[in-house]
Design a protein that fits this description.
The complex is a heterotrimer of chains A (336), B (331) and C (294).
Chain A (H helix, E strand, L loop, with lengths): L3 E13 L11 E13 L3 E5 L6 H8 L7 E6 L2 E2 L5 H7 L3 E4 L13 H11 L5 H14 L16 H13 L5 E5 L7 H18 L2 E6 L2 H7 L2 E6 L2 E7 H6 L4 H9 L41 H5 L5 E4 L2 E3 L18
Parallel strand pairs in A: 3-8, 3-9, 6-7, 7-8
Antiparallel strand pairs in A: 1-2, 1-4, 4-5, 9-10, 10-12, 11-12
Chain B lengths: L5 E12 L2 E13 L4 E5 L6 H8 L8 E10 L2 E2 L5 H7 L4 E4 L13 H13 L3 H14 L5 H4 L9 H13 L5 E5 L7 H18 L2 E6 L2 H7 L2 E6 L2 E7 H6 L4 H8 L52 E5 L2 E4 L1 H8 L1
Helix pairs in contact in B: 3-4, 3-6, 4-6
Chain C lengths: L16 H9 L3 H23 L32 H37 L1 H16 L2 H12 L3 H12 L1 H14 L3 H8 L4 H37 L10 H8 L7 H29 L7
Helix pairs in contact in C: 1-11, 2-3, 2-11, 3-4, 3-6, 3-7, 3-9, 3-10, 3-11, 4-7, 5-6, 6-9, 7-9, 9-10, 9-11, 10-11
Classes of the chains: A alpha/beta (336), B alpha/beta (331), C mainly alpha (294).
């Protein structure tokens, strides 16, 4: 994609593990192991997965908040992954982040107004009065009152704190906002408020969102394109309609079938795809397909040979040996 | 179905805080029968966890007090029961599993010891028998290699496995009532599905009465027979699960159902505006005489601020506490 | 879109952490008693010498006079016939000064080393950790004694010696706080908006790490006073400046004949340290969010 705002190619983030003795073999956690995707201006790219899938690490790597082992992250014409020092600091204004926990993401010792103004001060955008005016403006935009600028974070509710976090992220007029589970710590009724706000702000500013979530309902609601991650790899990536209408990877099926849904009774024994056990450790992923140890359809080939992510339909990519070249998955349960 | 096993009637719990005495639960009534799953739904701070703690006799002392109502287990009022009697029942006839499987297990004992302790305490088993029981229980909650894992410590288990251990502990004495307080909130979605399957299996096989406390309407829909919706310490709606989901009568229940972007397989409309419940749950010390939801209710009327509405029947064993229902009836 | 985000709280007054902490502290009776005691001690130490201008080094009467026996010395005289009350009033100043300054040095060294080790981790933490351990395993009293004998006993050397042997626990506490706070999302947020390391260490993490450090510094003042008394008892304090420790140290051989010359300064130290501990405990409760709502 040439018009991509964000272009991530073959991103790897490996963490060395502390060795018990200096002579023990070197071990690494391959938290993100070869992830590529592109995101156009004004669009939303969602990454879903369970804990240990590497989705948050991917977000942090894009933000340059964790060290990138290899691969490239480009933002427009700038290579984010190659920048260092002052150049990186200056580039940060173009990409901002909304964090998961509205309680720990705001400095408890700063007033709300100062929290929102801080990015502008650090980036030296405008004078002090301009910063203050812009903070007021941002406050109004995220639905807070300007008399609340003087309050401290603990005087706000969770949803309001998340609004402050959103205002902070917008302060430097970024082009890309990375949202790391922005609503999962909030009460259901508050989630809707924040999701609506995110949609409204995207339309107003033409923002691109990289949206990290474990909540498939939220991802389906918000994202134009969705990638499913498992143990550091993308197993499936497709436009929303295709991923939820025609999911191809058995892990995607398992995720979709695990989500509790209105209109389905567990006791009716509705045929659901059940996964046994927990995801294996990313320190020693199983050989072959990483999902093969839990996949109910795994064949001998799956345990020996790692499938590559291949495009089976326009924009629909999947890493599974069992998907045919014509883009059909013969084993998909009828309930999906 | 026989009569209810556990019956809560007009339960009132108050807390001393620096803002004065706060009523955390105000006249909550519910009941659950053998083999039945009751869902309790609401936002945080609505009193659903406190209801569970009150049933277990675990209202935090000295700040909290049960100031009214009754909790009847097989007709025996637990509010009046002695501490000794409560210890007998707790973990034995009525058991509870908590939200945080990481902190609810004692890290310095093996999981086997922790399960065995409950069994020894309540069933009077010998150490050897209790150990056997622990292995049996681990097997019952589908932990592979139970004989080996019984001697392991909690940190050697993953989150989902720990929640299974918690369930094994809770089930060691074959309780008649199992209270599950957000049992899957800390877990991944595929693991959550496993835990729900396990609970459902238990209910079907042993006839355990389950009280499932959750904020997730989807989980309630899949698991519960009946649903109680709570708001700010009060029950605002109660009914069979199909009626609550299909024909909710209280504006709060309607809001809860509409504000979630539910997963839809196949085609889904692009980003419909989500229904919002504006504002937040009010702090309990600021509650007035009227309906606590009035401030956030799209259909609030002047009288909503004046008095709390009684429960109106809107269908078979389906009732909601809302003045709109009286208006509708009058019309 | 009309957005109602009313939080249901009537207050829009900003209440910072310190104000909240004070509102908790205020309800702690023991801490208030400690604070009152400290205020009285401070008053006596600051204004006392003006109200009672007797030189504590002057010989005012017979040696070892019992309290009340001589009109000039209401609390008796020491083995040289010097006024014990004058010593108590005048001697408070250097004692408190040493305690306070030593605690300050402790905090400066401890916070710097703990902050750098906790923030940077890796080899920085490794090196600073070893340094901390080195100072921790030194026998504190012996080391302080060596320093003081090397550089002659003066208020400054005593203060420095105490500061140098006592900072390790502060460093460990600060390091632990930094390790905890640096993983919080607001630190990550600060980095993502381009804050430098120095800003994160001193402007963002430090204020948040301050509450337990404050408590520890308060208690460190108490232990510095005790340490100073211990050194004085061994004869290692400035002989030209009257302090409570010096009074105890110089009169210790006459404890049996003139108990008052040792007991009263001892009591003064005891009450001061007790008051400081009470305040420290009160601060601890006030800053501990778990106790915020009963």
């Amino acid at each position: 994609m040439s018009d991509a705002l964000l272009d991530v190619s073959d991103l790897r983030v490996h963490f060395p593990l502390r060795r018990a003795t200096p002579f023990a073999p070197k071990r690494t956690v391959k938290a993100v192991d070869g992830v590529s995707f592109a995101l156009a201006k004004g669009r939303t790219f969602g990454i879903v997965g369970e804990s240990g899938s590497g989705k948050t690490t991917t977000a942090l790597a894009v933000m340059r908040l964790t060290e990138i082992t290899s691969g490239a992250v480009r933002l427009g014409d700038e290579s984010l992954s190659a920048l260092e020092g002052e150049a990186l600091r200056r580039a940060r204004r173009r990409v901002q982040m909304i964090f998961q926990d509205p309680y720990s993401s705001l400095n408890p010792r700063m007033r709300a107004g100062a929290i929102v103004a801080e990015p502008m001060e650090l980036m030296q955008v405008g004078t002090e009065t301009e910063c203050r005016e812009r903070a007021q403006e941002l406050f109004a935009q995220v639905g807070l009152r300007s008399d609340q600028l003087q309050l401290f974070p603990h005087q706000f509710s969770g949803g309001q704190r998340q609004r402050i976090g959103i205002a902070r992220a917008l302060a430097t007029k970024p082009e890309l906002v990375v949202c790391d589970e922005p609503v999962s710590a909030l009460d259901v009724a508050i989630q809707a408020q924040i999701l609506n706000l995110l949609v409204k702000l995207q339309e107003e500013y033409g923002l691109a969102y990289l949206f990290i979530s474990h909540d498939l309902g939220v991802v389906q609601y918000l994202c134009d394109e969705v990638a499913v991650m498992y143990l550091g790899r993308m197993v499936e990536q497709a436009p929303r309609e295709a991923l939820f209408g025609n999911p191809l990877h058995p892990y995607t099926w398992a995720l979709l079938s695990a989500v509790p849904r209105v209109g389905r009774r567990r006791r009716d024994g509705a045929a659901r795809l059940r996964l046994e056990g927990d995801p294996p450790s990313p320190i020693s992923p199983p050989p072959g397909c990483r999902f093969s140890s839990r996949c109910p359809y795994a064949e001998a080939r799956c345990k020996a040979e790692e499938p590559v992510l291949r495009e089976v339909r326009p924009g629909h990519r999947v890493a599974c040996h069992l998907v045919r070249e014509d883009g059909t998955a013969p084993l998909r349960p009828a309930t999906l | 179905m026989s009569g209810p096993l556990l019956e809560v009637e007009g339960l009132k719990v108050e807390f001393d805080t620096w803002d004065g005495r706060v009523r955390v639960l105000d006249g909550v009534s519910l009941s659950v029968s053998p083999g039945e799953t009751l869902g309790i739904v609401g936002e945080s701070g609505c009193g659903k966890s406190m209801t569970a703690l009150a049933v277990m006799g675990l209202v935090p002392k000295p700040a909290g007090h049960v100031t009214g109502g009754a909790i009847r287990y097989r007709g025996e009022d637990l509010v009046k029961a002695s501490d000794g009697r409560m210890r007998d029942l707790r973990g034995n006839r009525i058991a509870m599993i908590f939200q945080e499987p990481m902190t609810s297990l004692n890290p310095v004992f093996t999981v086997g010891d922790q399960i065995a302790e409950t069994a020894r305490l309540h069933l009077g088993l010998s150490p050897a028998e209790a150990r056997k029981r622990a292995v049996e229980m681990l097997r019952a909650v589908h932990i592979p290699e139970a004989e080996r894992r019984v001697a392991e410590y909690p940190h050697q288990f993953s989150g989902g496995m720990r929640q299974r251990v918690m369930i094994a502990m809770a089930l060691a004495c074959e309780p008649e009532v199992l209270i599950a307080d957000e049992p899957t909130t800390a877990l991944d979605v595929t693991v959550q599905a496993q835990i729900f399957d396990l609970l459902e299996e238990l209910r079907a096989a042993e006839g355990t009465a389950i009280v499932l406390i959750t904020h997730d309407m989807g989980a309630t829909a899949e698991m519960a027979d009946r649903v109680v919706v709570m708001y700010a310490g009060r029950k605002v709606e109660e009914g069979p699960v199909d009626a609550i989901l299909g024909n909710p009568a209280h504006p709060y229940t309607q809001g809860l159902l509409a504000c979630r972007p539910n997963l839809q397989l196949g085609h889904a409309a692009a980003r419909p505006q989500l229904h919002e419940i504006p504002g937040v749950v009010p702090p309990l010390h600021l509650l007035g005489r009227g309906c606590a939801f009035a401030d956030r209710c799209p259909r609030a009327m002047p009288r909503c601020g004046e008095a709390f509405p009684p429960a109106y029947d809107v269908g078979e064993s389906h009732a909601a506490a809302c003045w709109l229902l009286e208006e509708a009836r009058a019309a | 879109m009309v957005e109602e985000t009313g939080d249901g709280r009537p207050e829009t007054k900003a209440r910072g952490l310190w104000r909240e902490a004070w509102s908790v502290f205020r309800r702690n009776r023991a801490a208030l008693v400690g604070l009152a005691l400290l205020a009285i001690i401070a008053l006596v130490v600051v204004l006392g010498p003006m109200a009672y201008p007797v030189d504590p080094f002057d010989i005012v009467g017979a040696p070892k006079a019992r309290p009340g026996a001589e009109a000039e010395a209401p609390l008796g005289t020491d083995y040289l016939g010097r006024d014990v009350l004058a010593g108590l009033i005048k001697g408070g100043r250097p004692t408190l000064l040493v305690g306070f300054c030593a605690a300050l040095i402790t905090a400066l060294i401890g916070i710097t080393i703990g902050a750098l080790g906790g923030f940077y981790g890796r080899w920085v933490d490794g090196v600073l950790g070893r340094v901390t351990e080195f100072f921790q395993v030194l026998p504190a009293l012996l080391f302080a004694m060596v320093l003081i004998t090397l550089f002659a006993p003066s208020l400054l050397t005593v203060t420095l010696a105490i500061g140098i042997v006592a900072w390790t626990s502060m460093a460990r506490l600060t390091r632990a706080e930094y390790l905890r706070i640096r993983e919080l999302e607001y630190v990550r947020a600060a980095r993502s908006i381009g804050a430098s390391n120095a800003r994160i260490i001193w402007r963002i993490i430090l204020p948040n790490a301050m509450p337990p450090i404050m408590v520890s510094a308060t208690l460190a003042t108490g232990s510095a006073i005790l340490f100073e008394a211990g050194l004085s008892f061994l004869g290692l304090s400035d002989p030209n400046i009257m302090s409570w420790g010096l009074m105890i140290g110089s009169n210790r051989n006459y404890l049996r004949e003139a108990w008052w010359a040792v007991t009263f300064p001892g009591l003064a130290i005891f009450v001061t340290v007790l008051a400081i501990s009470l305040v420290g405990d009160g601060l601890n409760d006030a800053f501990n969010p778990k106790l915020r709502t009963r």
